[in-house]
Design goal:
OB fold (Dihydrolipoamide Acetyltransferase, E2P), five-stranded antiparallel beta sheet
């Protein structure tokens, strides 16, 4: 899937991704450990590729990589 990072709080390590129009789905959350390069930081507005994984009864973005 592809989308855009729409929020990221580095202090708590949480953010959201809004899927691209072709990817479908709703806004998904992610934790900084899901950023594939290990940096644990990503800028708001970055276009990314990601996978979805089930976690605690909902889906989260995983394997997040800038496009």
């Amino acid at each position: 899937m592809t989308g855009t990072v729409t929020a990221f709080d580095a202090a708590v390590g949480l953010g959201t991704i809004t899927p691209s129009s072709g990817s479908g789905g709703s806004v998904v959350q992610f934790h900084c450990v899901a950023i594939a390069d290990g940096s644990r930081v990503i800028e708001v507005g970055t276009v990314v590729e990601y996978a979805l994984i089930p976690k605690l009864g909902r889906y989260e973005a995983w394997a997040i990589r800038p496009v």
